[in-house]
TrEMBL record:
Substrate binds at residues 77, 175. Residues 11-239 form the Peptidase M24 domain. The gene is map. The keyword Repeat does not apply. Belongs to the peptidase M24A family. Methionine aminopeptidase type 1 subfamily. Signal peptide: none annotated. This is Methionine aminopeptidase. GO terms for cellular component: cytosol. A divalent metal cation 1 binds at residues 94, 105, 232. The keyword Hydrolase applies.
Length: 248
């Protein structure tokens, strides 16, 4: 069942999104060769506490961290670690913020030092593909219009779209209906209505789109060792167009 949000409820989610966006702005300043994703995770937990919020994913199905930290060939759900980031790495930091029971979800990929031309293009195209999808998130369109816009842009730039992990509705629960794939034909799926709140979070790979899961049961990697990037916003569908609740 899709839970439509009132204007007041969307405003509560926007406040959570403001904290999340501010946290990402601070993370951008921290990213450098030598820092560990454990240190970033600890910073995020402290930052959220200082702003009266909590990390929703900590404790979710036993997950032990405030963030997911996915480096290079890790697509998503990577564990923060004590391994220092190196010059040329790319890292995605994903978090869900809970403020007074309302949630916001956003992932962002960052270059570490000087990255390759391929990595820089992957980051740029992945971010742009997210916005291509968001542009289609208007009342009367279908989920497939969002999905297709992402896939079309990504593949036209030479990258593959991960199919095993998708966007989702969000509100007081982290994962609500509807499901939001980042691939597929236009004109399919449910029609978008005012009051829907969902994530648009494409993951693009330099190689094949398929993934494999590490022995920890969480960490998803590219099947061929290629790089992967992800950008994600939480958006609200309104009669005046989509509103990005996690806008940085």
């Amino acid at each position: 069942m899709i839970i439509l949000k009132t204007k007041d409820e969307i405003e509560q989610m926007r406040k959570a999104g403001e904290i999340l966006a501010a946290c990402h702005r601070e993370i951008k300043k921290l990213i450098r060769p030598g820092i560990t994703t454990n240190e970033i995770d600890q910073f995020v937990e402290k930052f959220l506490k200082q702003h009266g919020a909590t990390p929703e994913q900590k404790g979710y199905k036993g997950y032990a961290y405030a963030t997911c930290a996915s480096v290079n060939d890790v697509i998503c759900h990577g564990f923060p670690s004590a391994v220092p980031l190196k010059d040329g790495d790319i890292v995605t930091i994903d978090m869900v913020v809970n403020l007074n029971g309302w949630l916001a979800d956003s992932a962002w990929s960052y270059p570490v030092g000087n990255v390759s031309e391929q990595a820089a293009k992957l980051l740029a195209v992945t971010e742009a593909s997210m916005y291509k999808g968001i542009e289609q998130a208007v009342v009367g369109n279908r989920i497939g219009d969002v999905s297709n816009a992402i896939q079309k842009y990504a593949e036209s730039n030479g990258f593959s779209v991960v199919r095993d992990f998708i966007g989702h509705g969000i509100g007081q629960d982290m994962h609500e209906e509807p499901q939001v794939p980042h691939y597929g034909p236009p004109g399919r799926g449910i029609r978008l209505k005012a009051g829907m709140v969902m994530t648009v979070e494409p993951m693009l790979n330099t190689g094949a789109w398929q993934s494999k899961i590490d022995s920890d049961g969480w960490t998803a990697r590219t099947i061929d060792g290629g790089l992967s990037a992800q950008y994600e916003h939480t958006i609200a569908i309104t009669d005046d167009g989509p509103i990005i609740l996690t806008k940085q």
